[in-house]
Design goal:
Adenine-specific Methyltransferase, domain 2, mainly alpha, 181 residues, three-stranded parallel β-sheet, 49% helix
């Protein structure tokens, strides 16, 4: 079975996670991923049972909130993604723009997941005032809800109850590591 990856994300360490894991000692107590992005290294580490606990951090607060929802509320985020995916039918381009506007107002995790599943190259882009402004990839509708749900639940099973998710500057995570472990 493949390692689950619910967040399509440009620059993800998903493709190099195996190489990174080869550099690990046999097992670590706590893995700290200070620049998590899609949390590919933490997910791969949990999948290979190379750590007991995880600290996942990304300065992008909406992304960190999405990771937290995937880990701790897989049913809710899966249901919300499925609803959005079905609501786009027949009006994909306009719906994407609507959800992008709503995300920029609310930062709801399900909106970000939908946008990442539909945007060009899974690339998060923000304008100068901090709004998500990446265009939709009009050649596709995003990952099917069933496949997304499967990956979300598999990641939750790997990380729930043993993961802290935060959104602070990496220096804060590294400075406070001993307090968090």
């Amino acid at each position: 079975m493949e390692i689950p990856h619910p967040i399509p994300y440009q620059g993800s360490k998903r493709n190099i996670a195996e190489h990174i894991l080869r550099l690990f000692p046999g097992h670590v107590d706590t893995l700290i991923e200070p620049f998590a992005g899609s949390a590919a290294v933490s997910i791969a580490t949990a999948y290979k049972n190379k750590a007991s606990k995880f600290i996942i951090n990304d300065i992008n607060k909406p992304l960190a909130n999405l990771l937290d929802e995937i880990i701790n509320n897989p049913q809710k985020i899966s249901d919300n993604y499925e609803r959005l995916w079905h609501e786009q039918a027949g009006k994909e381009k306009e719906y994407y723009k609507f959800i992008r506007e709503e995300f920029n107002k609310t930062n709801k995790p399900e909106y970000l997941l939908y946008l990442l599943a539909r945007c060009v190259k899974g690339a998060i882009r923000y304008n100068t005032i901090g709004e998500f402004n990446q265009s939709p990839d009009n050649r596709r509708k995003g990952r099917s809800p069933d496949r997304m749900r499967d990956d979300i639940f598999r990641v939750s099973k790997l990380l729930k109850g043993k993961t802290i998710v935060s959104s602070v500057d990496y220096k804060e995570i590294l400075k406070n590591t001993k307090k968090m472990i």
